[in-house]
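User: My instructor asked us to take a sequence, write out its structure as tokens, and then describe one feature of it. I'm not sure where to start. Here is the sequence I was given:
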Amino acid sequence: MKLPQFYYGYVIVAAGAVTALFVWGGYNAFGVFVPVLEDDFGWSRALISGAVSLAFIVSGIASLITGRLTDRIGPRTVATACGVLLGLGYVLMAFMTSVWQLYLFLGLVVGLGLGGEMTVLPTLARWFHRGINFATGVVKTGVGVSLFLIPILAGWLIATSGWQVALAVIGLVSAAGIVIAAVFLKRDPTEMGLPPNGMPAIPVETSGTERLIPVEDRPPSVQTTVTLGVALRWRRFHIFVIVAFLNLFVTRAVLVHLPPYMTDVGIPLTTAGTLLGAVGGFSILGRLGLGLAADRVGMERVLVFTLVLMAASLLWLQFATAAWSLVVFSVVYGIAHGAYFTLFAPMAAKLFGSFALGSILGGIAFIGTLGGAAGPFLIGVLFDITGTYYIAFVILLLLSLVALFLAIALARQSR
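Assistant: Let's start with the prediction itself. The structure tokens for your sequence are:
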């Protein structure tokens, strides 16, 4: 009896999950460092948040570059370079004494390293056709695991060894994890003579060698020959970009300012780190559960449901001051957070095809990161002016509602 051939795409999923874990782990946990840097250096929350925002802007620019390079030379070399930069940035931050060093090491060096995620998403879309939402959910589970573990680890290291040791450990572990995972990344199945999972393939003669080309990738299929220049002229692209901008504004602001908000209402820093970790833990449920649901009932419906959950959690946050109420917020918001970022790349693949998906995702990510950069900084400025997060959280709720209504329009465009 012949055993079924193992599909290498599952290795891509595992390597992608590890890459996502270490790319975003330290950055998503940085809110835990905000109170201690505020105490040690006297820097305002707006000043610290500005460096976080700069890193996100740089990551958007880096995504344009890494997405295009992944399309051309493959993900392995690009991911390795990003991993080294990311780890170096965190290690250098452990020795910083001035605010300009925070902006240089976090804003520029770590920001460039964050572009490493864009090596994974287009690669995954090339390896999977059937079950792409669930496969992306598994990869994005790496982000959820990091958001669950790294804030707790950071809080413990800060309490026992200081913030400098915490940053150095995060940097070294992140670099090692990304570089090792990159070894297993391959650009597409044709490198191994395989079709994407669930797609028929035909042999094609190219430069004297035969390789398998998925039927769906053959011209003149409009769905798979869309370039970034073509996509820029489409209404669906404009809607997608605005939704990404608004959601990144909201989600980055929440991750950066949730821990200091919790310490403001009397919750210890270690508990705040644990609750931020709970957001990551429940985001895993959103990534896997709603990713699987998207494969069955359609990603458009699940995207709208996800943004309903996000708006509901931000409405709840307006009144959450006790530990139990923040636990409820962490559960609901975590599920919505995880599901949204799981659906992002598959939705783009459905709307624009896989031909230039790295460049298209990079373009969307670049514009979206402007929102992710503005969110933490502007919320920090509002806090410094008002001394409270009340107005800031109302603004986040309103922006999430706008994103919800636009997602409904995007779902109609997709159908």
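For the description part of your assignment, you could build on this observation: The chain has one domain: 9-191+220-414. Try explaining in your own words what that tells you about the chain.
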